Amino acid sequence: MSNNPQCKRIKIAKLKSCESQIRYGPYIMVSPKPTPNPLPPAPTPDMTIVPIVNRYFYIPQTSIDLESGAKIPSTLFYDDNENEVDEFTIFSPNGYVNLYINGVIQEGGFYQVNSNALTINPANGVIRAGTPIIVESLGFTMTTNF
């Protein structure tokens, strides 16, 4: 019998012996069980995605004819706290903007928004005076805690 603790006797047909001095039959070398990693696992941070939402409201006093499109400056809008705004907050690339006219979300290709204005593409229609126009800007940030 072998004094090597890494050599265990497992009978396998037609295999060379683990050590040449063993005379009890063919054996195969079996590695010892792997030792566990002595280091503890690295802590996994708690990650939270935090949405940031800004809404801007405008109620036109006169009807807006969309035949040639329309450009509405951001200075005509007010925020959730009824404060006048100087510009829209746009979260790029970690966000997006929605447009609602009379509470109905509009197709993305119908408008563009930058920090200074809402631009509505030419269309066959009119936005009537008193119809609410809402620009909603959503952005996302991530916080981590260890």
TrEMBL record:
Q: Name one Pfam family in it.
A: DUF4183
User: InterPro entries attached here?
Assistant: DUF4183 (IPR025237)
Its protein name is: DUF4183 domain-containing protein
DUF4183 domain: residues covered: 70-136
